[in-house]
TrEMBL record:
PANTHER family: GLUTAMATE SYNTHASE [NADPH] SMALL CHAIN, GLUTAMATE SYNTHASE [NADPH] SMALL CHAIN-RELATED. This is Oxidoreductase. Residues 150-458 form the FAD/NAD(P)-binding domain. GO terms for molecular function: 4 iron, 4 sulfur cluster binding; metal ion binding; oxidoreductase activity. The keyword Coiled coil does not apply. It comes from Asticcacaulis endophyticus. It holds the Pfam family Fer4_20. Keywords: 4Fe-4S, Iron, Iron-sulfur, Metal-binding, Oxidoreductase. It comes from the Bacteria. NCBIfam families: gltD_gamma_fam. Residues 24-135 form the Dihydroprymidine dehydrogenase domain.
Length: 482
């Protein structure tokens, strides 16, 4: 143990061991190993302990990164974990799946000054995993049990984060979800090679052990009405996420050989759980032996191309209308995909799906070029006249992003107002909707975004709910005393 920091001048940046591409495409295990204690200590000692920690301001959760890096450098692992978990209910999950290259690590002063950043995400993951292994994480035992209850709709990261905070405050919490397993996109959307499902399960199990009730396979509006939930609970949090998929609108896009990214990823994850998935068995949602094209440039597209390589695809190509520098997904994920044999067709836009109603044979693409940057520095794209070509494909996966479902209609609650983008409106600076006692957080308010933002908003919404319930309780007691 060094017990020191500012060792970036003598310690070289090293990431955890990564399995080689030829080995890792044969399974769905996580591709990175955990740090050993000595490695975590050494890498944490590289932190410069900046007076103005840009890593912290670059983190949506405002994690106290320099402090827990210093504690890790000193070998004070339990204290470091407790500090990391003070601002994050899912630190070991965020340590795995956050795009640190665009957040904390990308903001690191060492990165900006040419010394290479501290491996913040890997240390965060190390601390969380060590905490579980050593029994530092126990079921929640509130200091005070309260008589009020909260119903949370959605068992994804925002819902889980809120449930953790609310249960800690002593509220009775029930989580309702349409799926058969808790975790939302953490369970069914993100592949196991990025986030093994046991990592999610131990968090959701801890909530159950803490007294949080799960009601699964529950479709609000059909299995139970929203009004019933409002009558049953003192407050409601809508944390459904956004699941409506943007679709192609080119000739041939209705072919059976064109599938939605979330359907494809869910099928793969269900197979990993041992479920029987007919569309996977039939080959419709299975890339084995096929030429696969994934359309899109975000992290969901990277999840799809890397899943296809593991399913034994003949070839995997990602088609994106802009260039690599303008790709919204994590550059680290692009690099991992390239290592695994994925080919990228940059500056290419879909023109038509080739084939017939049952099968596809390829994708016609239009080659694009970037235009002069506008006043904000954003470059547009335009067609290159006559630059078209056909790419072979047996399976085309649409990874074009997500939009909100029509929650007011689904829940039969017209009082829930939505923005022009379909996201639920909340009061300025708050998480309460225009319906009293009903709150909303995560992607259903923000729009499709990062897991770390869902965690942040779930935690903040829990604080708003606590304030609301305590205010309501105080008013009731005051009225009773009069």
């Amino acid at each position: 143990m060094t017990g020191e920091t500012n060792r970036f001048v003598v310690e070289v940046r090293r990431t955890p061991q990564k399995h080689d591409a030829k080995t890792r495409i044969n399974n769905f295990s996580e591709i990175y190993a955990d740090f050993k204690p000595a490695q975590a200590t050494t890498q944490s000692s590289r932190c410069a302990q900046c007076g103005v920690p840009f890593c912290q301001s670059g983190c949506p959760l405002q994690n106290n990164i320099p402090d827990w890096l210093r504690m890790t450098a000193e070998g004070r692992y339990e204290e470091a974990y407790l500090l990391s978990s003070a601002t994050s209910t899912l630190p070991e999950i965020c340590g795995r799946i956050c795009p640190q290259d665009r957040l904390c690590e990308g903001s690191c002063v060492l990165e900006q000054s040419g010394w290479e950043n501290v491996t913040i995400g890997s240390v965060e993951r190390f601390l969380g995993d060590m905490a579980f292994e050593n029994g530092w994480i126990e079921p929640i035992v509130p200091v005070q049990e309260r008589g009020q209850s909260v119903g949370i709709i959605g068992a994804g990261p925002a819902g889980i984060a809120a449930a953790d905070r609310l249960r800690t405050l002593g509220y009775k919490v029930t989580i309702y979800d349409r799926y058969d397993r808790a975790g939302g996109l953490l369970t069914y959307g993100i592949p196991s090679f990025k986030l093994e499902k046991e990592v999610v399960l131990r968090r959701t199990d801890r909530l159950a052990q803490s007294g949080v009730e799960y009601v699964m396979n529950c479709d609000i509006g059909n299995d139970v009405s929203f009004e019933e939930l409002r009558e049953k609970h003192d407050a409601i949090l809508i944390a459904t996420g956004v699941y409506k998929t943007r679709r192609l609108s080119v000739p041939g896009c209705g072919s059976q050989g064109v599938v939605i990214a979330l359907d494809y990823l869910t099928a793969s994850n269900r197979v990993g759980f041992g479920d029987n998935v007919p569309d996977y068995v039939s080959g419709r949602l299975n890339a084995e032996g096929k030429n696969v094209i994934v359309i899109g440039g975000g992290d969901t597209a990277m999840d799809c191309v890397r899943t296809a390589t593991r399913q034994g695809a003949k070839s995997v190509t990602c088609v994106y209308r802009r260039d690599r520098a303008n790709m919204p997904g994590s550059d680290r994920e692009v690099y991992n995909a390239e290592e695994e044999g994925v080919k990228f067709e940059w500056l290419s836009a879909p023109m038509a799906v080739l084939g017939d109603a049952e099968t596809v044979t390829g994708l016609k693409v239009q080659r694009m070029r970037l235009t002069t940057p506008d006043a904000q520095g954003r470059q547009g794209i335009e067609d290159i006249a006559g630059a078209e070509n056909d790419l072979p494909a047996d399976l085309i996966i649409e990874a074009l992003g997500f939009e909100p479902e029509n929650i007011p209609v689904m829940f039969n609650e017209p009082g829930l107002e939505v923005s022009k983008w379909g996201t639920i409106k909340t009061l300025a600076g708050e998480f309460q909707t225009l319906v009293p006692g009903v709150f909303a957080a995560g992607d259903i308010v923000r729009g499709a975004s990062l897991v770390v933002w869902a965690v942040r908003e779930g935690q903040d919404a829990a604080a708003d709910i606590h304030h609301y319930l305590q205010t309501q309780l105080a008013l009731s007691l005051s009225e009773a005393a009069e």
